[in-house]
Automatic annotation (TrEMBL):
A Pfam cross-reference name: SLFN_AlbA_2
Entry coiled-coil feature ranges: none
Top-level taxon: Bacteria
Protein name: ATP-binding protein
MF annotations from Gene Ontology: ATP binding
Length: 207
């Protein structure tokens, strides 16, 4: 599908969108690619600054060389991506589409050979020790329950929540809140981030 770059820039970075002025190295960009693959997929735009300014790319070949090195050698399992180059305001911009992986969990391999899980939380790629997988899409009935509606309201102003905060929010014990958050994670609503402790939970897909 054709991309409207102006609309994407206006939308700003988020769960499924990341801007990079350039790709610094294969191991570093692997973190972003893996986070998209482990969450809900996403679009990496190279040639756009964090503030939305369009700087453009000097060489499609050099940028894709680093990205393909990342997908082939710095992700496990290797990732399949697609890309296109578009011209915007007289400058070339690279758009890299990363689908949600069917082989989760996917790990990024750093310069020292360490394998690390990343997930996407709002506009950040965050390391975690464990990925709780969900087979199904989120049940719309779940979204209408009072506790989930309160939780979604909380996420409008906050990136993550802990069991202690959830317990305070809905007036239950910490243990009950932890069980609920795990259940929502297993149902595909949340992602668990357990680095550093205590575990935090974020929305798998933001509004």
């Amino acid at each position: 599908m054709p991309y409207n770059l102006a609309e994407l820039i206006n939308q700003g970075e988020g769960t499924r969108l990341e801007f990079k002025s350039t790709v610094s190295s294969a191991p570093r960009i692997a973190k972003t690619l893996v986070a998209f693959a482990n969450t809900s997929g996403g679009l990496l735009i190279v040639g756009v600054d964090d503030d939305g300014g369009v700087s453009g790319i000097e060489s499609e070949y050099h940028e894709m060389q680093k990205i393909e090195k990342a997908t082939d050698f710095f992700t496990e399992p290797p990732l399949s991506i697609s890309y296109e180059v578009i011209t915007f305001e007289g400058k070339e911009v690279l758009l890299v589409n990363v689908p949600e992986s069917e082989e989760k969990p996917v790990k990024a391999i750093d310069e020292r050979g360490h394998k690390i899980l990343y997930v996407r939380s709002k506009d950040k790629s965050i390391p975690t020790n464990k990925l709780i997988l969900s087979e199904n899409a989120v049940d719309t009935k779940l979204l209408q329950t009072p506790n989930v509606r309160m939780l979604l309201q909380y996420f409008r102003k906050n990136d993550t929540i802990t069991a202690a905060k959830m317990a305070q929010l809905i007036n239950v014990s910490d243990q009950r809140a932890e069980k609920m958050l795990r259940e929502y994670t297993e149902k595909g609503l949340l992602l668990m981030i357990d680095r550093p402790r205590p575990p935090r939970y974020s929305l798998k897909v933001s509004d």
